[in-house]
Amino acid sequence: MAIPGLRSVSALLAMEAGQFFEPAGRPGVARLTAQAMLRGTTKRDARAWSDALDALGASARLDVGSHAAVFSGQSLADDLGPYLDLVAETVVTPALAPESLEFVRAHTLAEIEEQKKDTRSVADQAWRELTYPAGHPFRTRSIGDEEVVRGAAIGEIRAHHRDGIHPHGSVLVLAGALDPGRAFDLAERAFGSWTGGDPAGRTVAPVVLDAARRRAVVVPDKTQADIVLGWPGLPRRDPRFTKAQVANMVFAADTFASRAGQVVRDELGLAYYVFSTISGTATQGPWAVRMGVNPENVERAIAVTFTELKKIRDGAIADDDLALARDKLVGELEVGRESPGGVAGMVLEAELFGLGDDHLDRYPRDIRAVTKADVVAIASALLPIDRYALAIAGPEIPPAR
Amino acid sequence: MIHALEARHAPVVSLWVWYHVGGRNEVPGTTGMSHFLEHMLFKGTAKHPKGDLDRLLARYGAQWNAFTNEDVTCYFETVPRDRYEVALELEADRMRDALISTDEVEAERTVIVSEREGYENDPSFLLGESLQAVAYDRHPYGQGVIGSKFEIKLMTRDGLYAHYRKHYAPNNAYVVVVGDDRAEALVEKAAAAFAAVKAVELPERSLAPEPPQMGEKRLVVHRAGGALPIVQLGFHTLAASDPRAAALQALVVALAGGGGGDSASGRSSRLYRGLVEKELATEIDASFGLTKDPFLFTIEATVRPGVTHRAVEEALLAELQRLVDEPLDEAEFARVRRGVLASVAFPSDTITWRAFRLGSLLSSGAAPSIGAWYEALSRVTPADLRAAAALTFVERSRTVGHFIPEAA
């Protein structure tokens, strides 16, 4: 997508190689593979590849999300050709040498150690274990299971690259200072020989919480407790997804514009941050409220969050709160156009989930069409107040007074 | 003072109001006052009661926030073009008419304590805060910005209000705006919005410079709440207005690149090659902030399991000395130069970040425009870089901090 007046191009290459597509029972293989891919190609070793990337002054990273592995970065407009060549080398012909795996394995294990002491990470992992059954792709954070990371062999990494990193289902979006015709030519030159791959097939049974599940994990010598309260969400392609986004905004998406944020932070001063996200994936990603509070305030913050949710489920939604949620979601589309990365992200989501060529035109209208009854129906169906998962990580929580 | 840039690639305007008040304007006992006050400017005015500003801006899909650092307090909003005047009206209104009620101060106090407690969960923050305090004997930069939990708990409404009335005025602020209109039109609208806000007599305060450090200082932070050891180094360095500041910025890229974390960029940098590739550290970072007074050039390494603090510290110091002893070769310098220029060009393609960049250059005195800063960076030579390293990385102005995780 051409955006006049800029000097750089933002690139996003999403491949259907995220957690959802990870080999069953092997959480961590996708991220190890991605990290190893960044350590040299069959044409040049890691040092030469880094030298070439830094010679362009370009940025690049490869992250494994719940749905896709996404290569993201930015280059100056004149460097787009060599930049895409470097990206393609990494994606199509990585060296995946055994010593590269050992390097990223050691790093990943060190990160896992750090995350064991990080209250947000601990709370998130505990929440996943409460919510998703064994074998579910989202039961573990993308960094993976420690034993899998310790034991993964180079053959498994190469197999995952062969089976998971392929053009089928992949989407490349370029936005910024470019000529579309030239950009297509450069992309064709870089990725034209990339072939292979089968439609990924993975069936995941629906997840239903049958009761309220709660776990508190003490992380010693911390000051603040982090809380994750959530439910299994709904797939991005579910026709109710837009309604769920509006419901999420009314409930807790924004610290200032949503009910939970207004009460927990603004009215009661219980937390510095409180927000919720609903993840768009092929299956039920997390729909979770997250907040950081003093241990003394944990129970109160949870209680008032439920009170706000109950109001929504009961239809006690002020007209202005609903209008605000719709306006904010529509307005963010317009403001998001200020950055090439923002534009690329919007296009990528539509392409990745097949939302239609007219998605960006249709989406604001769809948001505007969401009614109070829709929000109540979504909250009633997907955010039950007696069946949820609640994880808390931090200092010991004092007994209720 | 109003500065405007035209940016036509999206139908938005980003408005930033910078006040010359931050950590450097505070005294022991009430440290964190500027930051506390920043929170209170979201708590309503006579014209816009609490919640009004948040809901108005949220309704536009705006990005808005505020921050306080050692030098400034800054408020911004990026809004659709046709809401620019609303944003101006909100900022002009809260420049002098914030209510700062006792009840809201009490309600917000716990939020700020919560913000601080969140930072305290991070070992890197704990070590950095202590290192900053040890590095400065006299200058308020040693006090940090957020204040201690005890100071936050003792902050009074009247003290906050007095601080507000003393520092928040058009003659102690400037406006930076970037967006989808002619620069002249953006300026005209801003001038009209702030025209009725009266100037005040500003307090005169001569801030004595930090006396020269006469030898290395060391500190250790022990805590169970961290998994991996950390080594931090802080060197007293130059203010942003010093002509050598551009070379110091290039030094950051030479040492640690511009990426960090899982980024694949910056892996040709000296510290990545010398510590991460050599399996001494899992992460490295370097920073040189653009500040009004001389601040710290800081370096941080997360120690890899099984490696000692001492080994990492020695490797860091050896790499710093190598920058002094060995000039960068042509290829390495070309990479550094490209990285430095990209660090200006890339964020500038986002309207919000372009406005932030301009404001931070102006607030610190680094350059009068983004273009001038870009030119200053372009002129840096390998000899400048080496001279900046020789000036900065000296033992007597060094503070070394170790974070030691303890068993629970």
Question: How would you describe what is shown here?
Answer:
The complex is a heterodimer of chains A (401) and B (408). Chain A is α+β, with helices and mostly antiparallel strands and 401 residues long. Chain A contains 15 helices and nine strands. In chain A, a hairpin with a 3-residue loop joins strand 7 (271-280) and strand 8. Chain A is globular and about 60 Å long. Chain B has 408 residues and is α+β, with helices and mostly antiparallel strands. Chain B has two domains: 2-194, Cytochrome Bc1 Complex, Chain A, domain 1, CATH 3.30.830; 217-405, Metalloenzyme, LuxS/M16 peptidase-like (Cytochrome Bc1 Complex, Chain A, domain 1, 2-Layer Sandwich). Chain B contains 15 helices and ten strands. In chain B, strand 8 (281-288) and strand 9 (296-303) form a beta hairpin. The mean pLDDT of chain B is 95. Chains A and B meet through helix 2, strand 2, strand 3, helix 4 and helix 10 of A and helix 2, strand 4, helix 4, helix 12 and helix 13 of B.
Chain pair with largest interface: A-B, 84 and 77 residues
Q: In the CATH hierarchy, what is the superfamily of the largest domain in chain B?
A: Metalloenzyme, LuxS/M16 peptidase-like
Number of helices of chain A: 15
> Radius of gyration of chain A from the CA trace?
22 Å
Strand runs of chain B, count: 10
Number of strands of chain A: 9
CATH topology of the largest domain in chain B: Cytochrome Bc1 Complex, Chain A, domain 1
Helix-strand string of chain B: EEHHEEHHHHHEHEEHHEEHHHHHE
β-strand percent of chain B reads 15-25%
What low-confidence regions of chain A span 5 or more consecutive residues with pLDDT below 50? none
**Order of strands in the sheet with most strands of chain A:** 5-9-6-8-7
